[in-house]
Design brief:
424 residues, alpha+beta, Cytochrome Bc1 Complex, Chain A, domain 1, 6-stranded mixed sheet, 5-stranded mixed sheet, 15 helices, 13 strands, 43% helix, 19% strand, MPP/UQCRC_Complex, Peptidase_M16_C
């Protein structure tokens, strides 16, 4: 097992205007990655501006007073950097990977986009068509479609339950002025995190960030919160009928929010349940019963809510069986402890995956940004690994009993016929 001296060095600084800068220095690497995260997204949108955060994500690549859309692309290309972005329910993240030596030049372009993007009117109209096509593409992809529908249903009545892409109606109607209003109200210093991973110097990034992000408006975005008594929507099932060969479904169980005291136990639970070829879902649903080609579990964690989700695609005539088997595997954790052999293997899978991920700067720049946002500070990899190593079989069983023993999950599906119901 790696010793603490071999782990990368983490540092966190707060700029004079409130922007946080977090770095993970990994010496000896040629590559590096840098990202700028805004802790405001879909959950902070008004109903009439649904999808604005994602729309703005597209538009930040479309020009500033000093760079046109083509110039932004050409500059990234000319220095060998690869830039991208994504939008989730609680964040928008702009990032780029490059050689460590050109991270300063990469940061210059990203910061110009983030602070000075002008959302040119002609680009708004062109990109509106692109986003509308993205909405249609997601509608046509069964697994993506049912994920989106499930997410909205599971968190119905919660700010997390609004669609990231918006709808054809909101995207078709939103003006450049409303988009700019949304950006100015949310792209604020206290919600901004700069993260960098690779063979880079923390102090030099902090110095550059002070200069490049000095014009960012100060403040904290308004955050939409659910009712104090809010509960996710479980014990319900919805089916969307389509002429298809398979039925795709998600089923979900509530979890405590990100940073909860059970997170290491739940990581081990999820590894045994549905992560990889040695998982219980893979072995029972695919290998033993031939119910599905793809089956897995995942956890989605947010600041004030979270969920365990199970996905599978199967023949419509066996969809109910697949739902029953998946739920049975969850309940199995409540009834019996995992064996020592299974426990040790699951923890080793997690440990190896997290250590191997240190070689991927893009993965690390997302991780340290995410933990800084959700936990208040970047989580050292050694702390995470110690937490996983300490999990016992009894704790896995106890957390399963606490969270799942009396829960009937939500089930949503798409495919031919009537679709599966709740687990029996």
């Amino acid at each position: 097992m790696s010793t603490s001296s071999t782990y990368p060095k983490l540092r966190l600084s707060t700029l004079s205007n409130g922007v946080r800068v977090v770095s993970q220095q990994i010496q000896g690497m040629q590559s590096a990655a840098i990202g700028i995260r805004i802790d405001s997204s879909t959950r902070n949108e008004e109903p009439e501006t649904g999808g604005a955060s994602h729309f703005i994500e597209h538009l930040l690549f479309k020009g500033t007073p000093s760079r046109s859309a083509d110039q932004i692309t050409d500059e990234f290309n000319s220095i060998g950097a690869r830039a991208n972005a994504y939008t989730s329910q609680e964040e928008v993240f702009y990032y780029a990977t490059s050689l460590a030596s050109i991270i300063p030049a990469t940061f210059e372009i990203l910061a110009d986009m983030f602070v000075h993007s002008s959302l040119p009117e002609e680009e708004v109209e062109k990109e509106r068509g692109v986003v509308l096509q993205e909405i249609l593409m997601n509608q046509d992809n069964p697994s993506r479609f049912i994920y989106n529908q499930f997410h909205q249903g599971f968190w119905q009545g919660h700010p997390l339950g609004t669609p990231i892409l918006g709808t054809a109606e909101t995207i078709g109607a939103i003006s450049r002025g409303r988009l700019m209003e949304h950006k100015l109200a949310n792209y604020l210093t206290n919600a901004t995190i700069v993260s960098v991973a690779g063979n880079v110097e923390h102090d030099s990034i902090v110095e550059q960030a002070e200069r490049l992000l000095g014009e960012l408006p100060t403040g904290t975005p308004r955050t939409s919160k659910p009712r104090p008594d809010y509960r996710v929507s479980v014990g319900q099932n919805v089916h969307y009928q389509r002429a298809m060969e398979q039925t795709h479904f998600y089923m979900g169980y509530p979890l405590p929010p990100a940073g909860n005291e059970h997170r290491h136990k739940l990581a081990v639970f999820n590894q045994v349940l549905g992560s990889g070829m040695n998982s219980r879902l893979f072995r029972e649903v695919r290998e033993r019963r031939s119910l599905a080609y793809t089956v897995y579990s995942m956890m989605s964690s947010y600041t004030d809510s979270a969920g365990l989700m199970i996905y599978a695609g199967t023949g419509p005539e066996r969809a109910q069986e697949a739902v029953n088997v998946c739920h049975g595997e969850v309940l199995r954790f409540c009834e019996e402890e995992v064996t020592e052999e299974v426990l040790v293997a699951a923890k080793e899978q997690i440990r190896c995956a997290r250590l191997m991920a240190l070689d991927d700067c893009e993965t690390q720049v997302r991780r340290i940004s995410n933990t800084t946002s959700l936990l208040g500070a970047p989580e050292p990899i050694e702390f995470s690994l110690e937490g996983i190593a300490a999990v016992s079989a009894e704790e896995v069983r106890d957390v399963a009993r606490l969270l799942f023993s009396d829960v009937v999950p939500r089930v949503e599906s798409v495919g031919p016929g009537a679709g599966p119901g709740l687990p029996r």
